[in-house]
Amino acid sequence: MAGRLEAFGQGESILKEPRYLEELEDRLHFYVEECDYLQGFQILCDLHDGFSGVGAKATELLQDEYSGRGIITWGLLPGPYSLGEPQKNIYRLLNTAFGLAHMSAHSSLVCPLSLGGSLGLRPEPPVTFPHLHYDATLPFHCAAILATALDTVTVPYRLRSSPVSMVHLADMLNFSGKKVVIAAATVPFPLVPGQSLPDALVQLGGATAWTPLSACGDPSGTRCFAQSVVLRGLDRACHTSQLAPGTPLPSPLHACSTGEDVLAQYLQQQQPRVRSSAHLLLAPCKVAPPYPCLFSPSLSRHGLVLDGPPSGAAVESIPVLGALCSSSTLSRTLGDLARDLSKLDVRRWASFMDAGVEQGDVEEALQELGSLAQCYQGGDGLVD
């Protein structure tokens, strides 16, 4: 089936067929009736192929049937790609553009997820992590890293103890029409044995604490409007400074009394006019097999960065810092995607159009992408 779903229209048409539509509705009704507390729905789908159309149609159906519930859509894309496959790249661009345009219209939030560097036609190198050795051409490696990030950034609305729901999170991030967000993560979060969280954050300095995972290029010099940040996997003992009484404090972070305060103050220092939500989770991310072996030998069994020689022990768990951000970099990313789409003579790709897409749909997608891009221009990080 995946081999046949090359175009957005093919995927969209599947959920227009009565037999598939009825099956989806029956399954949804069954689970909803059995659910004690329905926050909303998460949709994970490929963004670069025909499953983009399946996801787009599913968000539309969910919005119609369950108005008021949260709908968070994660659009997955492969890592690097080659210029030597022009038709595949054109289809990837078309499916991504149509998918983002349609999903953003019917979702509370849409987040592309990729280790690649670009959504457009110009290839960019994949992202790197200081303590990971991964092969960006292997879906198994890419999927593991993206799953780690996804498992972390969704913590706020998945914990019973958290007061945050899917709708609350979406409302914080999507104000003024900013329906698209970027994901980012530090895998693993760099902590040396004996170091405290304030020590580690001060050591980062003014550098961006995470690596972007939404194929939006280099985020340096861009503005963040709102962000939800999760740090997981640090022992409670290292959440705050353990300096002896009377010792001069290296930074204001060392004066905080809880780990939540440390993280919140760090975010406030880095971006003082940004609406931020900070969450700490004690549980680390488990990376025992079948998780692929991607880790630097300089990591301990629990993912701490060793100063001395390698321990030789297999890494079993890691601390992770993850974030969802509404960022001005999306103005450039979405604008570039729209420009790439506008330069295409879509009539040359008859098989894409034969799948049920018309020229008017292309113009509508261009307009939607342009409107989305404008939402991220200028403005302030805080709103009244």
UniProtKB/TrEMBL annotation:
Domain of life assignment: Eukaryota
Protein's GO biological process: mitochondrion organization
Domain annotation DML1/Misato tubulin: ranges: 8-159
SUPFAM superfamilies in the cross-refs: Tubulin nucleotide-binding domain-like
Gene3D superfamilies: Tubulin/FtsZ, GTPase domain
Keywords attached to this entry: Cytoplasm
Major site of localization recorded for this protein: cytoplasm
InterPro entries: DML1/Misato, DML1/Misato_tubulin, Tubulin/FtsZ_GTPase_sf
Pfam families documented for this protein: Tubulin_3
Subcellular location: Cytoplasm
GO CC entries: mitochondrion
Protein name from the UniProt record: Protein misato homolog 1 isoform X5
Record gene name: MSTO1
